[in-house]
Amino acid sequence: MRVSRLILVLLFVAAAGLVGVSAVGAQDGATGCPAPPAGMNVIVSDAAKIVGTRGPDFICAGPGDNLIVTGGGNDIVYAGDGNDIVRSQGGADQVFGGEGDDVLNSGKGNDVVEGGPGNDRVNGGDNRDTLSGQDGNDRIVGGSGNDIMTGGLGNDAMHGGFGKDSISGEDGRDRLSGNSGGDNIEGGDGDDFINGGSGIDTCLSGETLNRCEVSPDVDADGFMQHEDCNDEDPAVHEGAEEIFGDGIDQDCDGEDANTRPQVEGAEFTINEDSRAGSIVGTVVITELDEADEIAVTIPHGNTFDVFAIDSDGLLTTTGPLNHEGISLYTLAIVVTDRGGLENFAAVKVTVANVNETLTADDAEFVINENNDPGATVGAITATDIDGDTTFSYSITAGDPGGLFAVDATGVLTAAPLDHEATPVHTLTVTVSDGEFDDDATVIVNVNDANEAPVIDAVQGPFSLPEGSTVPTSIGFVTGSDPDDGDIPTWSITNGPRFFSIDGATGELTLSGTDASLAGTVHVIEITLTDGVALTDVRSVDVTVTAAP
After folding, report:
1. pTM exceeding the 0.70 threshold for the entire prediction
2. Are 414 and 371 a contacting pair, CB within 8 Å?
3. Quick check: 120 and 137 in contact, CB under 8 A?
């Protein structure tokens, strides 16, 4: 029996390459990096040298020329603008060069490396890497694995390395070399030079002039000419008919040779927060060989392993998806038969945004009593993982007197408050995003402020018979202090010296000889003090009457 050869066939995707993070939440205004996925160590720096940790890192570099060395985890690196050097170590890393002439090196894992604008150098590592140059005149070199290489715009130089590589020059005048291994090479638009190298290669010409030097597989069935029983000698198998390009060849014993399984690219959409096991869609897989077993894997793009696929192409989720974390996955689907023949396709999964319940934050504030009308108490806050920042606020409980108000931005204000009347107010503030709402419990503590004592407005009338003996009680003045626990003190601050007042009780007394005749009116200034410095002052009249 003939030993089947392997030809890699790639469905090349857009210039982004087979990248697991194509769009994530809000952009960081300072760095331009997407929001990091949950559970990663976040490193934001524009240092000349940035070194990752042993865990999964999200490295966001600034606009300078950086040297970035990843650690041992599955890292995501945004090198930013500038002429950067990135050295990927262990782990399945995702590296994005950004603008500038970058040197990006893949490591030991199955890495995704994207050059971006600029004349970049992208080097593959030990395993199956996805390498993309993007804009500029790039140099892309494959490593030891079966790499997927995309040139993008510009006049690129691409060398396949030692594995069975899939190489696409795309636009521009490119030089494509397969090196060793059975490579699949596509020139794309532009006048390209293609050299298949050693191994059984497939050359797909573009729309303009291409020069192709490939291995002699004259009928495009995956076998070199000397290996085909009926390419040169139909008499070997009488009645057999070679069909050009069908991928099928007959062995010398008349049995059909193993054929490559086929897989079709697709685009699916699923709502975020779908439960684990939700069906995303079915990838179409075709195996021409009867009773052959197919293995289906997702070697690239399946960030955090949130998808699974079975041998029938049924793609499902393994856990909840988050639009705000990753909104688009580009998965590399690989199908492999028992004979080792495999094929690739790109499947894009869009995670649709679904409005999610917001969370209103409980709060506690302090304000002094006797505040000015409309004084600010504090701001009510709420969070929404959808990124919504526009909410409506309303006080739905705890304010029967209408002392409080909340505006459209969540700022809580108050009318003048009285500690002695209500020292603590407990409010319920409802926050809504138009579809969902949540209640916040808001506690407002009213501080006790020192208030002046108050002498009652009506006093007396007070009278004193002429010739009264000493001491003679004239009467009591009255007043109070609104502060809890304050005991005010009475005093006479102006008036005749033959009058006195009890500091505690306010009893007014004739304490000296008064020679005044009947009809005389004495004016006495009475002061009530709270002991801190606040006072109230009032004048009272004492009329001298005729002796009885």
Report:
1. no
2. yes
3. no
pLDDT, residue 540, reads 92
Distance CA 122, CA 309 (A): 30
SS3 225: helix
Cα separation, 501 vs 486, in Å, equals: 19
User: Which residue is it, tokens 């000419």?
Assistant: 225
Q: Are strands 437-447 and 363-368 parallel, antiparallel or unpaired?
A: parallel
Locus of tokens 């502060």 = 483
The pLDDT score that the predictor gives to residue 204 is 54
In DSSP notation, 420-443 reads TT-SEEEEEEEEE-SS-EEEEEEE
- Which residue ranges form the domains of the chain, and what is each CATH number? 41-223 (no CATH), 224-256 (no CATH), 262-352 (2.60.40.60), 359-447 (2.60.40.60), 454-545 (2.60.40.60)
Which of 331-335, 385-389, 485-489, 496-500 bottoms out in mean pLDDT, i.e. has the lowest? 385-389
Q: Are 431 and 357 in contact (CB under 8 A)?
A: no
**Tokens standing for 386?**
């959808």
Closest CA to 424 of 405, 407, 410, 403: 403
Query: Radius of gyration over alpha carbons of the chain, in Å?
Result: 44
Q: Locate tokens 């029983």: which residue?
A: 229
Residue type, 14: A
Quote the tokens at residue 87. 């050295």
Q: Which helix (H) or strand (E) holds 489?
A: strand 489-494
Print burial letters for 404-421: b (CB count within 10 Å at least 16), e (below 16). Answer: bbbeeebebbbeebebee
